[in-house]
Automatic annotation (TrEMBL):
Protein name in the entry: Winged helix-turn-helix transcriptional regulator
Stretches assigned to coiled coil: none
Family matches, as NCBIfam families: HTH_metalloreg
Provenance organism: Erythrobacter ani
Cross-referenced InterPro entries: ArsR-like_HTH, HTH_ArsR_DNA-bd_dom
UniProt cross-references to PROSITE patterns, sorted A to Z: HTH_ARSR_2
Residue ranges of domain HTH arsR-type in the record: 1-96
Length: 110
């Protein structure tokens, strides 16, 4: 069952921005500091931190202070909720497309 404690629209809004999407992709490989996330994007720590904040508010990551660094970790729960939501509508559209295909075949057989 999808946990709607974090609204799905907030998750998709966060993932809809290319910079944040790249950060999530990088975090899928393991923990990263904010500096690690900023480096390949050629952005300042302040800019990266703003994007990390949006991802954190959407429940997509956690941020932990370790010494002088902020270490980010991906939260699979939010991604799972988004995946469940899209799977639900994928099944809906698959059913609709199957019905359309059957109707086209029937029409072509006539």
């Amino acid at each position: 069952m999808v946990d709607y404690s974090t609204s799905i629209d907030v998750i998709f809004r966060a993932l809809g921005e290319p910079t944040r999407l790249r950060m999530v992709q990088e975090l899928s490989r393991g923990e990263r500091t904010v500096g690690d996330l900023a480096a390949p994007l050629d952005m300042t720590l302040a800019g990266a931190s703003k994007h990390v904040g949006v991802l954190e508010q959407a429940g997509l990551l956690t941020r932990e202070k370790r010494g002088r660094e902020r270490v980010c970790r991906l939260r699979s729960e939010a991604l799972h909720a988004a995946s469940e939501w899209t799977a639900k509508y994928s099944a809906f559209w698959n059913d609709r497309l199957d019905a359309l295909e059957a109707a086209i075949r029937e029409e072509n057989d006539d």
